[in-house]
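Lab channel / #folding
Pinned by the channel admin:
"Please post every new chain as: sequence first, then the structure tokens as a reply. Keep commentary short and put observations after the output so the thread stays searchable."

First post following the new format, from NK:
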Amino acid sequence: MSPRTRTGPDPVCPPPAAPPLDTGPATTRCGWLARLRHPTIAPNLQDCAPAGTPVDEDDPRVRYHGRLGKIPTTDINTGLKTAHRLLLLNREPDQRGAAHIAIDSDCRGTGKRFLAHHIGLAHQGRLEKLHGIDEHRIPVVCINTPFSPGSHAEWSAALATFLGWDIYRPGTDHQPQPRMKDLTGPVVHVLRGARTKLCLVDGIDRLGPADLQPTFDYFDHLGDELGGLTVFWNGLGSSDILREARTRSSPLRRVTEKTTTIRPRAVPTLWVNRIPGRSKEHPDEWVKVLVSLNELLRLHRQPAKGLLDHEEFLYLATDGLMEHLVPLTGTAAQLAILGGDEAITGNLLKEAANYLDIPHPTDDPDAPESD
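Reply from TO:
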């Protein structure tokens, strides 16, 4: 059943009760709304078990450090600002000034998905602040590139899954069978009524050469049917993939003697690269990241800016990748709580790196001698 389209002001509704801990992935509407309305909140140390009190693995602080959020680096903050400007351009009906935007990096694990999700969360948060929460409105959809990305049916199934539809039915042999091969029509009908204008797609690097044209034809069709749709494509090499796809989709021009060269289609790109280490060119970036990460920790004996005591070790172990830095720090913090240290030491960082199979220096050059 399709949602009703409201014509008047959106009502302001009280936020729902706190969801259970496991709310599902962001590629489902339930998981997306949980991230929007119930972000991870750091526990107050005053409300936790005192230092020296034995705790188990289900202690709130242990679980909290297992889901430490990534740190908004300079690239991520710049990306959020640029995305906001592009969305302002595209908010008018049928405006297609920057319909396809790439989120790219110099290697994997830099925080591209983090940026994509926060673009969507910030966009929906602004709309709900302006118009109030409306359960019938779906400003943002978040999906993964499907296993067979060249198929319209697979893309429509990914969108339907985000909407929470049960797209399978029991078959004669009790195995799940798809209810429809292509759900594009129903999906468009619902998204149009829900006024969806933003789509986040993760894993564009899974597109093969033969998938490019069908995929971007499909999303151009969605944009036409919805009266405008901005798509952020996240993945390594996404800018090159988008540029190739946009070039292929450009109509062929009749060649005459007066034909002039037309430059390739523009591809707005948000870059999220590795965090640079401390150097003359970048004296503060790595330091700021560690200080921000240290502020997220909830350890009874962790010094202010204590991670700076291990900054060289942490950079050599993580290569400036958020994908390694956050789990390494979170695991070390869990070990500190369960072992009673209540502070991250060089030995705990090495132990955490061993658990995560992260190569690291044998010695921590910044660790105090007592370690």
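NK: The CA atoms of residues 258 and 348 lie 70 Å apart.
TO: also worth noting, Residues 112-131 form the longest helix (20 residues).
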